[in-house]
Amino acid sequence: MHDPLYSHIPFQLNEQPHHYGPQVHLVGNPFLLSQLARLCAKGTTQPDINRLVALLYTDLMKTVLNAEFPRTRVAVATRMIDSTPQGIYQGEVLDPAVRAVTVNIARAGTLPSQVAYDLLNTTLDPARVRQDHIMMSRTTDSRDIVVGSNIGGAKLGGDVDDAFLLFPDPMGATGGSLSTAVNLYKNQVAGTPRRILSLHLIVTPEFLRRVTREHPDVGVYALRLDRGLSPPEVFGTVPGELWEKERGLDDHQYIVPGGGGFGEIMNNAYV
């Protein structure tokens, strides 16, 4: 007779309350927020920057696995099986038979996607895990204001049918890059994903407004919401309560308080 203690493992996501809708999850984690504050601090440079990004995405990816991915029950013989027939662990684990595709939106998304890919390979059947690559850049007008995103090239390894489709991209600023990438898969890649999820360190109200309106099927996970340029009456309110007044982007579409352009600081390439 086995102990049913771990036949069903409850997991409750700790998240900040908001009014952005059920597809948005603002992860409330004091440790991760502390590390993110260090990452965004003016004096933080390489190699600490990439180390912190990898740490943050490792834990954020674990949160998404716990909250979103299906489970299955197993019976695993432990090393005690040679001594006693009770040496078998029976309980719930993440289902290794699930398909997952993580998308590297170069360049800020390169390291986050690699972290997600490596972690997925240790959790799922590696034969069911894939990493795709999209070269993307912002397009600006004559005033250096971001007006869209262009795909310069892509390496997509196949269909996404019944797969978890993941977009780990540190800064959710305007929502343009994510929307363009999601549309690429919806319009040009065969198969229907089981779930589409975007994973961010920081998002803005503007980002959430665009993504929730254009892609209501995309689940958003973020460690922090930045709305630092909002009018005074916004501060102290529950996020999304005064959504139309909330503002997190400056006139050049950089996040405030933010952390600077993550593509630049992660690569020491300020172009």
UniProtKB/TrEMBL annotation:
Gene3D superfamilies: 3.40.50.2020. InterPro entries: PRTase-like, PRTase_dom. Keywords: Glycosyltransferase, Transferase. Residues 30-231 form the Phosphoribosyltransferase domain. GO terms for molecular function: glycosyltransferase activity. This is Uracil phosphoribosyltransferase.
